[in-house]
Design goal:
Layout: H1 9-12, H2 17-25, E1 46-48, E2 56-59, E3 64-68, H3 84-95, H4 110-123, E4 127-131, H5 134-145, E5 151-155, H6 160-169, E6 172-176, H7 181-193, E7 206-211, H8 223-232, E8 236-240, H9 255-259, E9 268-272, E10 282-286, H10 288-297, H11 299-302, H12 309-323, H13 330-352, E11 364-370, H14 374-384, E12 387-388, E13 390-392, E14 402-407, H15 414-431
Parallel strand pairs: 3-12, 5-6, 5-7, 7-8, 8-9
Antiparallel strand pairs: 1-2, 2-3, 4-10, 9-10, 11-14, 13-14
Helix pairs in contact: 3-12, 4-12, 5-6, 7-8, 12-13, 13-15, 14-15
Bound molecules: 4'-deoxy-4'-aminopyridoxal-5'-phosphate.
């Protein structure tokens, strides 16, 4: 198949089917018309098994039940849970799966109002607003916060939803080097002074956008330093906590708690419910004025059907468990467990000689493969040995920085992790991705 596509064959050859199909999706002629389309769907259909803490998934095409190291199910709430599930079922019976209404016209149930209050309390901001999808939260909110005449300064590795929101806003967009407060300052200085007297400030408003944990890097944001720069140049901060809220911090309150940042110093806090809370949807938490402004102006609030009530109830219950308001200490245990699991897995991988990105405490750990041609061997061999990993390549990463991205969950047991490490080590030897000498075992 690949040979038929002029110019692309050398890249495609030797790659796994799904990757070839992914490249197909992107092949267009000079008028932007597709000249090659993907044959069928290019993803595996999986069965999720939720009665075993959702550690496993079954790939129907391979009929293999495997240990799931790819899901964002950080706290294990995307599973049958003794506190969350019965309440979600009750809310389904009471409210049905959908309100079939927009928030302003009959789509706001008591649950929506309760979750907005709870989210604001949880993240430490005065108010919050919900959206049906995390992606839309970024892509629809950013244009409501800033427009023509404004300046967005965005981390170079920010998520696509942020990139789309920034592009759609009409504001000028500048990018700073990933997680570099020094480069952020350079960009700000240039944009504010711009070779003119230092008092010159040509922008109506400046927003700096960063993520709490970078989803392809597993790295924590240098938030204290970034906030210091923003304060110095009077820029607003926008923090996407999709991967950090619920997953890090002593009580799960994300990177602010982990890094000792006062939430009052972050102007706009964004997060999703699709990871630590095992649900769907997203939120913005900010000052009452900003939230009121969004409630009155954001099309995704005014014209979109509100979040599904059972999904709302799931988040309410999960936050209550995290806060210990369910009357148990399961939340604290889950948080301790994800931290221990993440730090154990990361340090063991490093000892084996893998190049692992990211920081301690982060449950996201990319193992570098570099050459995209290593993807099929790595993922297939892991799968054959019953470990499901997500591999990421172009266009989500630069072409030669392919990686396997492991996501650790509080629901993984030590036994699961030891099994997975064993498999990954063997496959790593086979594929040749141990770039450092292994640490000799301690006697
Ligand atoms: N922001 C970041 C940083 C993300 O990684 C993602 C998706 N993983 C989103 C936003 C979009 O969230 P959702 O999947 O909940 O729509």
């Amino acid at each position: 198949k690949a040979k038929n596509v002029k110019g692309y064959a050398p890249i495609c050859l030797g790659l796994e089917d799904f990757y070839v199909r992914r490249l197909y999706l992107r092949i267009q002629d000079c008028f932007g018309r597709p000249i090659a389309s993907a044959p069928d769907s290019w993803f595996d259909v999986v069965e999720r098994i939720s009665n075993d803490n959702n550690k496993t998934l079954q790939r129907t095409s391979h009929t293999t039940r495997c240990l799931n190291l790819g899901s964002y199910n950080y706290l294990g709430f995307a599973a049958a849970d003794e506190y969350c599930t019965p309440r979600a079922i009750e809310s389904l019976k009471k409210y049905s799966a959908s309100t079939c209404s927009v928030r302003v016209d009959g789509g706001t149930t008591k649950l929506h109002a309760e979750l907005e209050e709870l989210v604001a309390r949880f993240v430490g901001k005065p108010a919050a607003i919900l959206f049906g999808m995390g992606y839309v939260t970024n892509s629809a909110i950013i244009p409501c916060l800033i427009g023509k005449g404004g300046l967005i300064i965005s981390d170079s590795l920010n998520h696509n939803s942020i990139v789309n929101g920034a592009r759609g806003s009409g504001a000028t967009v500048r990018v700073f080097q990933h997680n570099s407060p020094a480069h952020l300052e350079e960009v700000l200085r240039e944009q504010i002074a711009g070779g003119q007297p230092r008092t010159h400030r040509p922008w109506k408003k400046i927003i700096v956008i960063v993520e709490g944990i970078y989803s392809m890097e597993g790295e924590l944001c240098k938030l204290p330093e970034i906030i210091a720069v923003c304060k110095k140049y009077k820029a607003y901060t926008y923090l996407d906590e999709a991967h950090s809220i619920g997953a890090v911090g002593q009580s799960g309150r994300g990177v602010c708690e982990l890094l000792g940042v006062d939430p009052a110093d972050v102007d706009i806090m964004m997060g999703t419910f699709t990871k630590s809370f095992g649900s769907c949807g997203g939120y913005i938490a900010a000052s009452k004025d900003i939230i009121q402004h969004l409630k009155h102006t954001c099309p995704a609030h005014l014209y979109a059907t509100s979040m599904s009530p059972p999904a709302v109830q799931q988040v309410i219950s999960a936050i209550k468990v995290i806060l210990g308001e369910d009357g148990s200490n399961r939340g604290a245990q889950k948080l301790a467990h994800i931290r221990e699991n993440s730090n154990f897995f990361r340090s063991e991988l490093k000892k084996m000689g893998f190049e692992v990105l990211g920081d301690n405490d982060s449950p996201v750990m990319p193992i570098m493969l570099y050459n995209p041609a290593k993807i099929p061997a790595f993922s297939r061999e892991c799968l054959r040995q019953k470990v499901a990993v997500v591999t990421v390549a172009f266009p989500a990463t630069p072409l030669l920085l392919a990686r396997a991205r492991i996501c650790i969950s509080a629901s993984h047991t030590r036994e699961d992790l030891v099994t997975a490490l064993d498999v990954i080590s063997r496959v790593g030897d086979l594929v040749g991705i141990k770039y450092f000498p292994a640490e000799p075992p301690k006697i």
